[in-house]
């Protein structure tokens, strides 16, 4: 009887990650962290996400439990994570990349109805323990309405830096000052966002830089951020000490918790959309310390063939540089199988390894890896700092421009790949050389930043304390004060 009462009292959250690789990975880790703190989690993946993971696992020769990515963790640690897959409104065969606008319309209109119905059914099924929380990725348009309808506490999970969040959060100020959504946007520095000393327009998330922000993607992003404003709590995959003034200012308007870095430190839960190309580990093992440049543009962005070729020529010009390049098969966004210059792989044989997908955290943590040419996705930035690998920055989309500012201008742990918008092989080659041969200053700064991350995760560190505080505060939201232990 006592055990039944205890089970009934457990906090239960529904978690919904955006169906993209860079959002799923931190969401999975967050689910594990909450479960290890006694939460019951109902974790929702879309069916297409689940089928990508299952296919990737079967291609690497694993024989996974087809139904549940968390089954090992449940068996190993007794975590109460209940895994659910839902349709995103499209059949599995629908090509979401090629029909991007239709897919975004589906996420705007169909997916909210599907999630709402699922939550309604779950709540009316007398689920035990009862659900109190909805933890949804901030890039959804529906969570606040759905949470209100079902009387759930709405927690918005922001998987980018606080600086990007605050720029969206203050979109009305950008509009008012003519930096966004005017006929002729101002181009001077922005110095009126609370907690942000000054930020150049080129460092805004790309959707806030666009002069014609009316696409379905813009509508989607802006509607999501409007929704996130309504959240009861925001949790952010960052560290207070890295963005203290931005976070302090945000906390004046919202309960905002910096609980990062949340990233994959082992491969406890299989969540990759692509199979890992085998052989990276042994290849790195055979190379001297800090000698390899790792190159990856993440899981999402498309890079034009011309740009790939300029980077390849930069590598050819650095004839002694070892490199490991992860190039997704869909990197250019079309069915292009040959994106590298003719004869490239023969020419670099012995010093270069080209793979489709790797375990990035393992590559970055290898002692042979000495530099990272990155698109500056936020997970990549955090992982690179954690592994103390200086970055050569090539932002392409969304928050990557803002992340570049943090990496290069604020923390000084990376440098730009190109001075301007053009990508030219001479400049690329020169900067690769500088990063690999002349980055002592960056490495020193990196040590400090790594310490910041490590300290934040120590038992008395800011992120651990914020996480404790967050769990305390959300419990307070649903229970009478007297029943909360401090
Ligand atoms: N990643 C990986 N192998 C690769 C490329 C990427 O494991 O070959 C992982 C990487 O470690 C990171 C995520 O995919 O956790 C990409 O997220 P990020 O925010 O860096 O970029 P996005 O893909 O969202 O643009």
Keyphrases for this structure?
seven-stranded parallel sheet; globular; 2 domains; alpha/beta; binds uridine-5'-diphosphate; 486 residues; Rossmann fold; 13 strands; 13% strand; six-stranded parallel sheet
Give a structural overview:
The chain has 486 residues and is an alpha/beta fold. It has 2 domains: 2-268 and 459-483, Rossmann fold (3-Layer(aba) Sandwich); 280-438, Rossmann fold (3-Layer(aba) Sandwich). The protein is 44% helix and 13% strand. The protein contains 20 helices and 13 strands. The protein has helices spanning 2-9, 21-36, 47-59, 71-77, 100-124, 143-149, 162-169, 171-176, 206-209, 216-229, 244-251, 280-285, 305-317, 344-347, 360-365, 378-386, 400-410, 425-437, 440-457, 462-478; strands at 12-16, 40-46, 81-86, 133-137, 153-158, 233-236, 256-258, 292-296, 322-326, 352-355, 369-374, 391-393, 414-416. The strands form 2 sheets. The protein has a 7-stranded parallel beta sheet, with helices on both faces. Strand 12, helix 17 and strand 13 form a beta-alpha-beta unit. The longest helix is centred in the N-terminal third of the chain and has 25 residues, at 100-124. The two termini are 26 Å apart. The model has no long low-confidence stretch (mean pLDDT 94).
């Amino acid at each position: 009887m006592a055990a039944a009462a205890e089970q009934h009292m457990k906090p239960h959250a529904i978690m919904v990650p955006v169906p993209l690789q860079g959002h799923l990975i931190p969401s999975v880790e967050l689910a594990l962290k909450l479960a290890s703190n006694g939460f019951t989690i109902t974790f929702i993946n879309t069916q297409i996400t689940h089928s990508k993971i299952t296919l990737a696992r079967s291609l690497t020769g694993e024989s996974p439990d087809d139904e549940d990515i968390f089954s090992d963790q449940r068996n190993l640690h007794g975590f109460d994570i209940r895994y659910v897959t839902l349709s995103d409104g499209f059949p599995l065969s629908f090509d979401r990349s090629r029909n991007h606008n239709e897919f975004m319309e589906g996420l705007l209109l169909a997916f909210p109805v599907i999630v709402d119905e699922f939550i309604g059914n779950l709540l009316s099924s007398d689920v035990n323990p009862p659900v109190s929380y909805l933890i949804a990725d901030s890039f959804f348009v529906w969570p606040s309405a759905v949470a209100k309808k079902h009387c759930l506490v709405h927690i918005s999970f922001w998987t980018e830096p606080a600086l990007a969040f605050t720029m969206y959060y203050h979109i009305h100020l950008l509009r008012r000052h003519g930096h966004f959504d005017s006929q002729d946007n101002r181009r001077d520095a922005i110095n009126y966002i609370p907690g942000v000393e000054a930020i150049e327009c080129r460092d805004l998330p790309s959707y806030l830089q666009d002069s014609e922000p009316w696409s379905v993607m813009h509508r989607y992003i802006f509607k999501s951020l409007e929704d996130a404003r309504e959240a009861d709590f925001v949790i952010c995959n960052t560290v207070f000490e890295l963005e203290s003034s931005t976070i302090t200012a945000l906390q004046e308007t919202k309960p905002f918790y910096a609980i990062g870095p949340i990233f994959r430190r082992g491969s406890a839960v299989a969540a990759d959309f692509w199979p890992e190309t085998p052989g990276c580990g042994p290849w790195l093992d055979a190379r001297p310390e800090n000698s390899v440049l790792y190159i990856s543009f993440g899981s999402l962005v498309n890079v034009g063939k011309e740009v790939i070729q300029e980077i390849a020529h930069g590598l050819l010009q650095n004839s002694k540089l070892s490199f490991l390049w992860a190039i997704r098969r869909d990197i250019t966004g079309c069915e292009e199988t040959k994106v590298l210059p003719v004869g490239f792989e023969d020419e670099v044989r012995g010093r270069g390894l080209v793979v489709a997908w790797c375990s990035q955290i393992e590559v970055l943590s290898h002692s042979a890896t000495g530099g990272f040419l990155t698109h500056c996705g936020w997970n990549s930035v955090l992982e690179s700092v954690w592994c103390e690998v200086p970055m050569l920055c090539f932002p392409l989309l969304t928050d990557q421009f803002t992340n570049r500012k943090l990496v290069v201008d604020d923390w000084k742990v990376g440098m730009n790949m190109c001075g301007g918008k053009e990508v030219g092989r001479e400049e690329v080659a020169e900067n690769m050389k500088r990063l690999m041969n002349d980055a002592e200053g960056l490495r020193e700064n990196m040590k400090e930043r790594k310490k910041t991350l490590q300290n934040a995760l120590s038992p008395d560190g800011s992120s651990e304390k914020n996480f404790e505080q967050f769990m305390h505060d959300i419990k307070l939201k649903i229970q009478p004060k007297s029943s909360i232990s401090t």
